Amino acid sequence: MAEMSESSLTTAESAAPPRARLRLFAPFEWVVALRYVRARRANGFVSVIAGFSFLGITLGVATLIVVMSVMNGFHKELMDKIVGIDGHAFVQAVERPLTDWAQVTDQMQRLPGAKLVIPMVEGAAGISSPYGQSGALVRGMREQDLLRLPGMTGNVKDGTLEGFDAAGGVALGQRLAETLGIRVGDSVSLLIAKGASTPFGVAPRIKAYPVVAIFQIGMSEYDRVFVYMPLAESQLFFNRENEATVIEAFIDDPQAVDKFRADVETKIDRPLILTDWRQRNKTFFDTLQVESNVMFIILTLIVLVAALNIVSGLTMLVKDKSSDIAILRTMGATRGSVLRIFLIIGASIGVAGDIAGFLLGLTLATNLDGIRLALNKLMHANLFPAELYFLSRLPSIVDPREVTLVVTMTLALAILASIYPAWKAASLDPIDALRHE
């Protein structure tokens, strides 16, 4: 009789019309799948596992989207801040001082792709006021160049850079001003060890300057150390008469800096040392990229664990519903129908978690800095100190390609996790299943 029953099932499957055999996800398969997903007294624990799988996928997708968006924001903000204030290519003198800086600047400005070329005198100094003292990186720059500096445009918070050369004062970062306890109109003293030469040796040089402007670049490391003064004054202060220590260039495409460097080497007939933004910041940006990749791998494990929960949940559901599956088979349901029912269950959990995680992650990523400020007020704490992260706000940039990758990857994992339990359900022998009832 067992052989006859199994034979009749096989005959029924083979006798099914071609359209019925080829149809995917018939209405009754959806009905059965959705009934199995919903909690019942007998299989409530299975539904709890399905709920945890859904929650795990939701949190995994949302966390991935938020973290990758923050890493993108960090990369872009730091790139804009660092390159916006430091330039893309740098030229320094070799063999003889850079007294012909005006000629070299003019030649570099005429090169293809050059946007802004700035000669300057750069040196370290001590800076003090009646209320504090600190170290500073002093840059002597012409007013016309300082006004066009990308990192400075629109970032002057107090005072003005108009008439900077004639004023003979200095502009400094907001965090440095806070450290010194000064504001526009106050005076600061700059000190260097190598000043004027005297019969008793080289004496330190100290000179007071009025503060004419306070700026906030948005990168705390720069706002804490940078001081700008007129180029002519810096040449006198650092004993660099009619000389520049470095010429920096901003170009249209930072990724095309190799071509610009080649043009400088071939078209400027003078011994020079050339460096670019990649060399100066290579370790920093490489580290940031490695951190981004590692975070992606670690957070993907959350999604993977949720997918494994789908496997365990469906496996338990198959065992719990073995008699129901056998009855469906005896009523004419094919192995393919049973397979598709359990695929629908696993895929439904994955799709629902994917959509919920996408919406949650997108909401958090686009409102991250506002959420941080609200948490700061609520907890009376600073959750994103600028001194540690170099930025005054928490950046977040959603990359559609990365979001698509996360959503697609999660959905694929959910479907793959459903295949084995669904295959086990389809392979269930209805005779054996009903024999134990």
TrEMBL record:
GO terms for cellular component: plasma membrane protein complex. Keywords: Cell membrane, Lipoprotein, Membrane, Transmembrane, Transmembrane helix, Transport. It is found in: Cell membrane. InterPro entries: ABC3_permease_C, Lipoprotein-release_system, LolCE_TM, MacB_PCD. Residues 53-266 form the MacB-like periplasmic core domain. It comes from the Bacteria. The chain crosses the membrane at residues 45-71, 294-318, 339-365, 403-423. Residues 296-430 form the ABC3 transporter permease C-terminal domain. Pfam families: FtsX, MacB_PCD. It is a multi-pass membrane protein. GO terms for biological process: lipoprotein localization to outer membrane; lipoprotein transport. Its main location: membrane. Belongs to the ABC-4 integral membrane protein family. LolC/E subfamily. This is Lipoprotein-releasing system transmembrane subunit LolC. It comes from Methylosinus trichosporium (strain ATCC 35070 / NCIMB 11131 / UNIQEM 75 / OB3b).
